[in-house]
Amino acid sequence: MKKIWKPLLLIVIIGIIAAELFFDYRSLLDTSTQLASTIDLPVGTNSGELAPDFSGTTLDGEVVQLSDLRGKTVLVNIFASWCGPCRAEAPHLVEVDNLLGEDVVLLGLNLQENISAVESFKQDFGIDFPLVLNEDGKLTEIYKPIGLPTSWFIDPDGVVRYVHAGPLTSEIILAAIEDTQAGREYNPFGTVQ
Predict the structure, then answer these.
(1) pLDDT digits (tens, 9 = 90+) for 115-164
(2) What is the pLDDT of residues 157-187, one digit of tens each?
(3) Contact 118/59 with Cβ under 8 angstroms?
(4) What is the model's pTM?
(5) Total domain count for the chain?
(6) Are 79 and 142 found together in one domain?
(7) CA distances from 134 to 86, 142, 153 (A)
(8) Are residues 36 and 64 in the same domain?
(9) How far is it, in rounded angstroms, from Cα 137 to Cα 28?
(10) Is residue 190 one of the residues assigned to a domain?
(11) By CB atoms within 10 Å of each CB, which of 23, 40, 100, 149 scores lowest?
(12) Structural domain of residue 63, as residue ranges?
């Protein structure tokens, strides 16, 4: 009986390990299948590309990493406090932010100003969404604005669906977010018949 006990115990242990590896492998396959649609995409800031990851500190001292927001629709908006069109757009961003649920995140990315300029801009417009500081300009080397403001609409899989240069209105933001959430590129000119 003693001779059978040790090999039997060894077989049970090997079986448990094999089952654990099998289920871990299946879980990994499920995850990779979900991400397969975005893995083959080039990384870049154009529509249809996988949005480049970045990490930055907000005005409130929190660290935001774009990749941590996967599963949510993200609007990255580059602004400057002195920019007239950015100031005209800010109330629209605040209005939309107040309407949206937690599955959409607005991120203001400052062009390259000091903390006091960004704080003043935040107070002027009553902004509650995160404003990412960029005093050294490194983040705008990744997300190069076409003009000011420039906005990127990124879908829950991390794919850029629409890039807009110039100020946005609430209506355009909401329509672009709807298309982005659906995995479509927004067409600002509507459907051509």
Answers:
(1) 999 999 999 999 999 999 999 999 999 999 999 999 999 999 999 999 99
(2) 999 999 999 999 999 999 999 999 999 999 8
(3) yes
(4) 0.79
(5) 2
(6) yes
(7) 16, 11, 20
(8) no
(9) 37
(10) no
(11) 40
(12) 55-181
Are 145 and 153 a contacting pair, CB within 8 Å?
no
115/157 Cα distance (integer angstroms): 32
Cβ–Cβ < 8 Å for 120, 86: no
Can you tell me the distance from the alpha carbon of 79 to that of 64, in angstroms, rounded to the nearest whole number? 17
Q: Is residue 45 part of a domain?
A: no
Q: Name every residue whose Cβ is closer than 8 Å to that of residue 121 and which is 6 or more positions away in sequence.
A: 79, 81, 87, 90, 127, 131
Cβ-based neighbours of 99, under 8 Å, separated by 6 or more: 174
Residue 168 in any domain: the answer is yes
Give the CATH number, domain containing residue 121: 3.40.30.10
Co-location of 63 and 35 in the same domain: no
Q: Is the pLDDT of residue 63 over 50?
A: yes
Rounded Cα distance between 76 and 66, Å, is 9
Listing DSSP states for 12-72 in one string gives HHHHHHHHHHHHHHHHHHHHHHHHHHHHTSPBSSSTTSBPPP-EEEBTTS-EEEGGGGTTS
Any domain includes 81: yes
**Which residue has 């908006």 as its token pair?**
77
